[in-house]
C-alpha cells in the first residue's frame, strides 16, 4: 500500500533518533553525539544502517575505506547510478543531524519509492561516508576521496591521539587498506552525487524557508601570522614607546573583521591566539594568530587576501611592529553543477517552496566527489543556524518537504535521461 511523504519522513525521524544513540556520549540531548571513524560507535551505526537498508530491499556492502553503500537497484541492470548520501561521523559533542541526516533521508526516499512502487531507470546508491570531519585522524574527506579515486595512501600513516594509525584502524574495522584504490566508482557509471545537509547557518530560517539549493561549496584558506614586538615591564615603559605585539594583533583582528564585513561573499575569522611571554605585567613580545578566509569565489578570496596583507603590513609598520606569516591550508571553492542547480531549483518550486540559492560556507564531501562526477546539494533549515553543538535541531515538517523535493529530483532525472 502506498505511503505518504509524511509517513516516510516519520520513519526517517525515528531512524535519526536511534542513530543519535550510537555515540561515546550517554545523553545526546545534553552532551551531543560523538561518533568517530573506525570506532565501536561507527560499527554500531553501520550495523543499524545495514539492517535498515536490507529491510528496504537494498543490497549492502562496506568498502575498504569504511564507507557503507546500500543500493536500490533499477529494473535496468545496466543503468547508471545516482549517488546520494553524506557522512556518518561527527565532531566531538556534535549535533544529531549534521551528516547523518543526509544518509537517513535518502533511505526514507527509498522507503517511499518502494512502498509506492515507483520504479526508476537508474540505480540509487546511498552512501554513509566514513570520515568527513577528520576528527580522529585530522585527515578530512577520507570516505569521499576513496569513492572519487583521489585517496592519497600517505593518509594511512596518520595517527590518532592514542597512536593508532589510520591503516591499523581500518584493518581492525574489517577493511583492506591496500585495496582502497579498487573502491573508486567508474566515472562513466555515475549520473551525479547529491547531498542533503542541514544548512549550519541562519539564512533559511531568517527567510522562513524549509530548504535551499546550494550554488557552491566554499573555498578556504588559513594563515599563521606572528606579530613581533618588544617585551618590557608593563609599569615602567611609557605607552608611546611600547612595541606591544598583542595590541598589533588586535589591530590585525579588526582588519580581518572589517574586510569581511565590507566584502560580499567573504567571511573570515581569527580563531586562535598564542601570546608570549603571556605574563600579567609583561608587554607581549610575540603574538601568533590564525586567520581564515572563506568564499565561494576563489578570485574574491585571493583578492581579499592581497588587500588584507597590504593593510596588515602598513598598520603594523606604523606601530613599530613586524610580522611573518605562512599559508597553512588552501582548498579551492567547488561550484555545484549548473544543470543540477536547475534540477534542484525546479524540484523545490514544484514542491511549493520559493527557490533560494545560497552557497555553503562549510566544507562537505562534494569537495572530493567533484573529482568523480557532477555534484549538487540541498540545504535543510536548522534552528538558529546552530551546528556542531548539542543544540542542533531541525523540524519534522522540513524533513517531509525535503523528501518531497528529493522525489521530484528523481523524476526530473528520469525524464532528463
UniProtKB/TrEMBL annotation:
Binding site residues for Zn(2+) 2: 98, 133, 388
Cofactor, how bound (note): Binds 2 Zn(2+) ions per subunit.
Binding site for allantoate: 222, 281, 294
Necessary cofactors: Zn(2+); Mn(2+)
Gene3D superfamilies the record matches: 3.30.70.360, Zn peptidases
InterPro entries given in the database record: Amidase_Cbmase (IPR010158), ArgE/DapE_CS (IPR001261), Bact_exopeptidase_dim_dom (IPR036264), Peptidase_M20 (IPR002933)
UniProt GO molecular function: hydrolase activity, acting on carbon-nitrogen (but not peptide) bonds, in linear amidines; metal ion binding
UniProt keyword list: Hydrolase, Manganese, Metal-binding, Zinc
Positions with a binding annotation for Zn(2+) 1: 87, 98, 197
Assembly notes: Homodimer.
UniProt family annotation: Belongs to the peptidase M20 family.
PANTHER family, per database record: ALLANTOATE DEIMINASE-RELATED
Protein name: Zn-dependent hydrolase
Amino acid at each position: 500500500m502506498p505511503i505518504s511523504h509524511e509517513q516516510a519522513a516519520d520513519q526517517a525521524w525515528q531512524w535519526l533518533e536511534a542513530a543519535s544513540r550510537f555515540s561515546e556520549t550517554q545523553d545526546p540531548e545534553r552532551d551531543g553525539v560523538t561518533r568517530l571513524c573506525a570506532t565501536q560507535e561507527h560499527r554500531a551505526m553501520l550495523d543499524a544502517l545495514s539492517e535498515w537498508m536490507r529491510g528496504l530491499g537494498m543490497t549492502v556492502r562496506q568498502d575498504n575505506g569504511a564507507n557503507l553503500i546500500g543500493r536500490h537497484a533499477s529494473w535496468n541492470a545496466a543503468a547508471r547510478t545516482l549517488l546520494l548520501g553524506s557522512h556518518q561521523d561527527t565532531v566531538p559533542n556534535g549535533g544529531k543531524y549534521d551528516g547523518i541526516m543526509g544518509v537517513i533521508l535518502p533511505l526514507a526516499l527509498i522507503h517511499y519509492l518502494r512502498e509506492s512502487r515507483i520504479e526508476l531507470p537508474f540505480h540509487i546508491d546511498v552512501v554513509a561516508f566514513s570520515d568527513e570531519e577528520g576528527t580522529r585522524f585530522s585527515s578530512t574527506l577520507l570516505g569521499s576521496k576513496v569513492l572519487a579515486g583521489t585517496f592519497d595512501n600517505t593518509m594511512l600513516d596518520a595517527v590518532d591521539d592514542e597512536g593508532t594509525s589510520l591503516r591499523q584502524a581500518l584493518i581492525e574495522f574489517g577493511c583492506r587498506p591496500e585495496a582502497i584504490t579498487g573502491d573508486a566508482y567508474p566515472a562513466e557509471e555515475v549520473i551525479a552525487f547529491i547531498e542533503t545537509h542541514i544548512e549550519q547557518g541562519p539564512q533559511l530560517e531568517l527567510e522562513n524557508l524549509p530548504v535551499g539549493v546550494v550554488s557552491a561549496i566554499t573555498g578556504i584558506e588559513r594563515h599563521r601570522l606572528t606579530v613581533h614586538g618588544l617585551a618590557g615591564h608593563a609599569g615602567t615603559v611609557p605607552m608611546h614607546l611600547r612595541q606591544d605585539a598583542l595590541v598589533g594583533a588586535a589591530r590585525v583582528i579588526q582588519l580581518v573583521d572589517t574586510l569581511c564585513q565590507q566584502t560580499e561573499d567573504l567571511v573570515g575569522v581569527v580563531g586562535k591566539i598564542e601570546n608570549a611571554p603571556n605574563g600579567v605585567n609583561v608587554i607581549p613580545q610575540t603574538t601568533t594568530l590564525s586567520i581564515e578566509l572563506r568564499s565561494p569565489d576563489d578570485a574574491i578570496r585571493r583578492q581579499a587576501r592581497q588587500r588584507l596583507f597590504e593593510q596588515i603590513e602598513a598598520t603594523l609598520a606604523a606601530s613599530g611592529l613586524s610580522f611573518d606569516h605562512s599559508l597553512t591550508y588552501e582548498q579551492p571553492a567547488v561550484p555545484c553543477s549548473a544543470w543540477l542547480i536547475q534540477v534542484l531549483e525546479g524540484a523545490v518550486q514544484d514542491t511549493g517552496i520559493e527557490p533560494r540559492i545560497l552557497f555553503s560556507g562549510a566544507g562537505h564531501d562534494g569537495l572530493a566527489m567533484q573529482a568523480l562526477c557532477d555534484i549538487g546539494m540541498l540545504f535543510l533549515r536548522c534552528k538558529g543556524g546552530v551546528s556542531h553543538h548539542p543544540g542542533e535541531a531541525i523540524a519534522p515538517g522540513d524533513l517531509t518537504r525535503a523528501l518531497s523535493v528529493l522525489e521530484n529530483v528523481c523524476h526530473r532525472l528520469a525524464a532528463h535521461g
